[in-house]
Design goal:
Blueprint lengths: L1 H26 L9 E7 L2 E5 L15 E4 L2 E8 L6 E3 L6 E4 L4 E4 L5 E4 L5 E2 L5 E2 L5 E3 L8 E6 L4 E6 L4 E6 L2 E3 L7 E4 L2 E3 L8 E3 L8 E4 L1 E3 L5 H33 L4
Antiparallel strand pairs: 1-4, 2-3, 5-20, 6-19, 7-8, 7-11, 9-10, 12-13, 13-14, 15-18, 16-17
Length: 261
């Protein structure tokens, strides 16, 4: 019964963590480019009372063992990089990636971060930046006399000047990773590369497995609200059942402690 108490306690802790992750997914249901997170769990060590295959009489072996588990623990949180819905905005600086790939932005300390959020802006110098002011990499500057901005599927950026002339001012490139689940989320819709993600591979949008760029669209969160709500209900019921297990084990211990000769 002592094992059941601790096993149920680990189950309650696991469901609490799962609920925290579900809550974060639902909180970011309207976040541009957000990718939902899933919690993975694994069972703890087992107390083996009898081992399967132990020799017994007449040369036979035990067909099954006798063991008791000690609960559950969180193993990993996995980010699901499926494509979110594309929302038409009509804004020339709103860009969506219709497939694999990340935009590159430069942080204030010089590091390169990666994002699926294509809600770009123009700063006072005409450079394309994120909502937090981080520069798009490669850096692209829109001329002051530009009247229209055009971004092709392959990332070619062109502007129409007041003279009617159309000039190419740069190319947006994308990067992808062997293991994008290994990226480190740093907030602000940004990720950092890690040893687990591998080094970034840079390429042209729409080529070599990279997604194309869609101008005038934003990729929304890939969180399925209905699915998350169902998971929340299952999480709540699992938490209740684990708490009921603790109550039952406590009642059994109370009964055993109350026995009299």
């Amino acid at each position: 019964m002592t094992i059941s108490l601790w096993s149920a306690a680990t189950g309650m802790g696991a469901q609490q963590l799962r609920l925290d992750i579900l809550a974060n997914n639902l909180a970011n249901v309207s976040t541009n480019g957000y990718k939902k997170v899933r919690a993975d769990f694994e069972d703890l060590v087992y107390t083996n009372i009898k081992h399967a295959g132990t020799p017994v009489a007449q040369g036979s072996q035990l067909p099954t063992g006798l063991f008791v588990g000690h609960g559950v623990r969180p193993a990993a949180t996995e980010r699901i990089f499926t494509l979110g819905n594309l929302q038409k905005t009509g804004n020339a600086l709103d860009l969506a990636i219709t497939g694999d790939g990340f935009f590159q932005v430069q942080l204030q300390d010089g590091r390169i971060a990666y994002t699926r959020d294509g809600a770009f802006k123009r700063d006072a110098e005409g450079r394309i930046v994120t909502s937090d002011g981080y520069l798009l990499v490669p850096s692209i500057t829109i001329p002051a006399d530009a009247t229209d901005l055009m971004v092709a599927d392959d990332g070619t950026v062109s502007v129409k000047l007041t003279t009617g002339e159309i000039n190419t001012i740069g190319n947006i490139t994308l990067v992808k990773f062997i293991n994008p689940q290994g990226l480190e989320a740093m907030g602000k819709n940004l990720f950092l590369a890690t040893a687990a993600s591998g080094d970034p591979t840079e390429g042209t949008p729409g080529q070599d497995g990279f997604g194309a760029i869609q101008q005038g669209y934003l990729e929304k969160s890939n969180v399925d609200v209905v699915n998350e709500m169902v998971n929340m209900i299952a999480c709540q019921r699992a938490y209740e059942m684990n708490s009921r297990t603790i109550q039952t084990a406590d009642d059994m211990l109370r009964t055993a402690a109350g026995l009299k000769r």
